[in-house]
């Protein structure tokens, strides 16, 4: 067996999908259930139909294209939503290479012992109410109290966005009941980091996926007139946040080198030129592939925040907004992907994924593996996201071989 | 001559004015030309009319109540606009004590050799396009290129807000031509700082008013995925801003102790949990009563920003958004206020005003003096702004005596 994907068809699909949600400010803005996403969903269903796959959408808006077969289902895919002003490869390469794999398998009429499905999961990027809405609904691992009726990050409540797509909170909560029994899940994705490019390797095989904690944090001091309040009498909430962020970065670098922290968003209030900030609200993202590091780093950073607050006469508040556990890919699946990569004559590198992926969520119900391909400069979530089509072809052929292995007798 | 103000009438006026623009989120929100301000303006004109003062509004919406007399005009007042969620004394005490002074002078039929006017200046707080729109228009010192047609800080263009008040860009630009010849300007105001309260003095006599530079600044780095980009490879614009703010505060405290700096507003983009900030936009307010310090501190801070940018691999950008020069109150006017304060048997303290005031702007065309009264805890621009009515009575009697002195033969 040496069947190969048609990279020309994959490229045509990726470029066609990239037309939905082009943003005049740069890149692609295609949050789930936006008008651009609804159009892209219709386009994707047409592609599935064109490939003679049985198309199904579950109650969370996850879209499946199925090639019927006996036994459990081998699932492969990713997501087609994007961050605002994102790139054209994050997510889309996973869905559209999986589609090509199923097309090729169907064209070759391979006799497989599994059903196959390509999937596009809803809102992987968390533009609405947090990451992984679709794969969490699919696996029945939604966080408690999904805020369906509160304004989502796009402004409109999730329940209204769902209604636009013919869905509802009840259908989201019930989505996991429609799920077929999953034998394994595979996801091809861009690395979103610089390691493959630096190593000159076209393929990364993911061993572990980092877990993360998202916290919403605040320092609360006192708003004062910036023209009349001496520096030493101020309780400046921004300076507390600045101190925490700088010292936190040093703490993570020195004591938790296998961890990362990011303060990605911050706002000050009252928020004018001449008023000492009385309050700084900011986000804190901490990650590690080690559950122990994630826990220790979180504890150390909260202690640091309390220390900064005490020293500066302000108060520190925080609450956990989202969390995922670190995941270890089953060694047998890593080995299978490495064997097939060798068979293709491609160099590969074992990697830890610092970014979260649907595979991390699906791992709760089935063995889940990931194939990375390089992206230029490690850049993603940005208009400048770029790949080499040769790398994608290698990754897609690996995905094809792995799907066939997992769906063959004796697997 | 020992006439006194009626503090009961002043209090009644201040409390009545405070009903316009009560904000459910706390305090008073009465930006110039808001609905609340338009109602407050109508109320103020009624008070002027009730006091039999000739009421006039100039092309910038500055409102005057005139007591006719020979020669140049002695002007006293302040402003009735507030910051969002501000207090009920900032500005209002200056306008309403001046009104009471003119009422008392009229009631006593004092034979004066000057015309007297009470004034309420438009948008002292700079809620629209920058501080002191009204007093700058009055004195003919508007900054170049007032952004009449761009969205103001309230969202609507200034020209639309002006139209709501029957005004226009042309009328603002021409306002200074309607101005009477001003002999002197006096402004009573809350201190907006803690010094009078700490000294137990009911009256502050302002010797100098700080100048300021407002800059809009940015650090531009590179947005990266917060889960995949090692800390040492990041070009985090927020950490640059944090570093600059902390080191800037230390620099000002050590090298420019007669200066102040405030970073009051900051926003990060793209601005999400998991993305390293590629850009930090923030405001920088620097102040000093010394023109030399203002210049040197500005130069040192810009050099520091460049140094931080170079060390962190980011770019620093800034532009001057507004500037006022430090003002020294004429010594003769300070002496006159001190003599009258002594005559009233009140302790006074000479002060520098760290906050800007319309008096600073009016000083371009006439001798301008300021009387401060304490505010509780030094708090202002906040719902908790509070005064002692006894202090205000002393301040108002001082204002009354000073107006009479300035408007008398031989002054």
Note down, in words, how this protein is organized.
The structure is a homodimer of 411-residue chains. Chain A is α+β, with helices and mostly antiparallel strands. Chain A has 2 domains: 283 residues, Zn peptidases (Aminopeptidase, 3-Layer(aba) Sandwich), CATH 3.40.630.10; 114 residues, Alpha-Beta Plaits (2-Layer Sandwich), CATH 3.30.70.360. Chain A is 36% helix and 23% strand. The first copy, chain A, is built from 12 helices and 16 strands. In chain A, the strands form 3 sheets. In chain A, strands 1, 2, 3, 4, 5, 6, 14, 15 and 16 form a 9-stranded mixed beta sheet that branches. In chain A, strands 7, 9, 10, 12 and 13 form a 5-stranded antiparallel beta sheet that branches. In chain A, strands 8-11 form a two-stranded antiparallel ribbon. In chain A, strand 3, helix 3 and strand 4 form a beta-alpha-beta unit. The longest helix of chain A has 22 residues. Chain A starts with 6 loop residues before the first helix and ends in a 5-residue tail after the last helix. The relative contact order of chain A is 0.17. The model of chain A has no long low-confidence stretch (mean pLDDT 95). At the A-B interface, strand 8, helix 8, strand 9, strand 10 and strand 11 of A face strand 8, helix 8, strand 9, strand 10 and strand 11 of B.
């Amino acid at each position: 067996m040496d069947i190969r994907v048609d990279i020309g068809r994959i490229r045509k699909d990726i470029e066609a999908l990239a037309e939905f949600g082009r943003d005049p400010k740069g890149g692609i803005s295609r949050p789930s259930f936006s008008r651009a996403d609804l159009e892209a969903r219709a386009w994707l269903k047409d592609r599935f139909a064109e490939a003679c796959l049985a198309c199904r959408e579950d109650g969370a808006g996850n879209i499946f294209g199925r090639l019927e077969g006996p036994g459990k289902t081998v699932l492969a895919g990713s997501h087609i939503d994007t961050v605002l002003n994102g790139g054209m490869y994050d997510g889309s390469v996973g869905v559209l290479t999986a589609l090509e794999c199923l097309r090729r398998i169907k064209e070759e009429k391979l006799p497989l012992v599994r059903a196959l499905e390509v999937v596009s999961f809803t809102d992987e990027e968390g533009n609405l109410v947090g990451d992984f809405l679709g794969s969490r609904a699919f696996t029945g691992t939604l966080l408690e109290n999904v805020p369906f009726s509160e304004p989502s990050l796009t402004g409109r409540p999730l329940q209204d966005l769902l209604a636009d797509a013919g869905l509802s909170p009840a259908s989201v909560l019930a989505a996991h009941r429609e799920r077929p029994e999953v034998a394994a899940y595979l996801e091809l994705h861009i690395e979103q980091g610089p390691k493959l490019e630096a190593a000159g390797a076209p393929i990364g095989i993911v061993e572990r996926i980092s877990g993360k904690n998202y916290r919403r944090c605040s320092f609360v001091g006192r708003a004062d007139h910036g023209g009349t309040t001496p520096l030493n009498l101020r309780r400046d909430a921004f300076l507390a946040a600045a101190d925490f962020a700088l010292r936190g970065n040093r703490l993570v670098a020195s004591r938790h080198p296998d961890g990362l922290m990011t303060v990605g968003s911050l706002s000050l209030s009252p928020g004018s030129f001449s008023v000492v900030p009385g309050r700084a609200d900011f986000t804190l993202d901490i990650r590690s592939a080690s559950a122990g590091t994630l826990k220790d780093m979180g504890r150390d950073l909260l202690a640091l925040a309390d220390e900064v607050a005490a020293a500066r006469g302000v108060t520190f508040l925080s609450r956990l907004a989202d969390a995922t556990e670190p995941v270890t890919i089953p060694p047998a699946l890593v080995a299978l992907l490495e064997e097939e990569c060798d068979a293709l004559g491609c160099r590969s590198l074992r990697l830890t994924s610092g970014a979260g992926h649907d595979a991390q969520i699906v791992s709760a119900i089935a063995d889940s593996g990931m194939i990375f391909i390089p992206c230029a400069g490690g850049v993603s979530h940005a208009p400048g996201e770029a790949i080499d089509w040769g790398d994608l072809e290698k990754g897609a052929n690996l995905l094809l071989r792995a799907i066939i292995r997992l769906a063959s007798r004796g697997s």
